[in-house]
Protein: Copper acquisition factor BIM1-like domain-containing protein
Amino acid sequence: MLSQTLLAFGLAATTSAHFILQWPPTAGFLDEQEVNGPCGGATVTVNETSPEVQVDRFAVQIQSSHPHGNWQFRATLDTEEPYNWTNLSMAMTEGVGVFCLNYLSAPGDFAGKGGILQVTDYSGDGTLYQCAAVNFATGANSTLGAACSNATSSFTAEWSNSTSSEESEDHSGHSESTSASASPSASAAASASSEAAGAMATVGMGTFVGGLGALAAGLML
Structure:
């Protein structure tokens, strides 16, 4: 009985979170404030220690408790508000747990500069935000090691290169300008992904399940 209670507690702790941007590392996860744009209530500090992402192709890793995700990825070179966001791409996902999307790209002229990556999920819980401080670099890198690989659990992603130039207002009332990305590599990546959506999204669901098992085992000790 006790083990069942502890397991239920572990499941509740895992699924209470909306989503967590694991790579690049989130600037801060504040579950109750994730509905507040542009960065879920977190303060983003960009400096030379921020991780690199390659403009031609890079991956993101996300842990999500929602079976259906509707994601938008944007970036900016602004390090203070108001942010001028550039749309990168959009994706719709099916599957719960930790997954890796490895066909993102940014405009080539971002290379060599620091900035912010924003991930937005238009989910059943409302619009949710996370941000990461990054340094954009030249080149391409589609992997995050073992976490960015296919697993036996099913996971699908459908990509879209739909972008628009508009001014949007986030949930905190900030007015932000948004511009469409003109990066050829972004368009190419989105086009390629639409041809093989299943091959272009990878998932670390086994890592998620294994981690949950470790949590439950630890609680039972």
